[in-house]
Amino acid sequence: MKIMKKLFIIIYLLANIVVLGACGDVESAGEPQPRVPRVEVESENYYVQIVQENIDGVAFVYRWLDMDTASKYVITLNYEGTAETLEIEDKSILTYDGVRELLFTNRQIMEYMRTFGLDGKEAQLSITLEAFQADGAPITSEAAKASKTSKIDIILGPGVELNPDLE
């Protein structure tokens, strides 16, 4: 019994020495690296198919990671091939794990298509998210803009028209 107890103590001490030796091998804790602020959106592509059955439904939910230093987000839509943009009001909500969400409905998408003067059954818009500090300075560089721009492919189904009488 005494031999077992001594053997246990010896094994315990050896294990502690090995653990302390392994922890002592770290040369330094390292230098903290600066965090490059960037806007991260959930998806590069959104696909919207509007048919009579879902005309009053949700087209998609636009999600991005909230930035602590951002006091304002600017969301713009652009029709491919034009310089014209449309600013979207930021009515996003902060959800779980620092994710912001902005809901787009099918009717809103159709209204945006009308605003751009589109009358076809298919279109591709781009949506860009930009973050700004309280003093109005952009948080990210212009070069990073492409990484926060997503494409929205839109298809109108049979019987869905972009007429002004959607109400």
Task: Please sum up the structure shown.
By secondary structure, the chain is α+β, with helices and mostly antiparallel strands. Helices cover 19% and strands 32% of the residues. The protein has two helices and eight strands; from the N terminus they run αββββββαββ.
Which terms summarize this structure?
32% strand
Strand content: 25-35%
The total of helices stands at 2
What kind of sheet is the major sheet?
5 strands, mixed
Q: What is Rg?
A: 27 Å
Low-confidence segments, ≥5 residues, pLDDT <50? none
DSSP summary, beta strand count: 8
Protein structure class: alpha+beta
Helix and strand element order = HEEEEEEHEE
Overall spatial form: elongated
Helix percentage:
10-25%
What's the mean pLDDT score? 81
Q: Strand order across the biggest sheet?
A: 1-8-7-3-4
* Straight-line N-to-C gap: 89 Å
Notes on the structure:
19% of the residues lie in helices and 32% in strands. It has 167 residues and is α+β, with helices and mostly antiparallel strands. It has a five-stranded mixed sheet with strand order 1-8-7-3-4, with helices on one face. Strands 2-6-5 form a three-stranded antiparallel sheet.
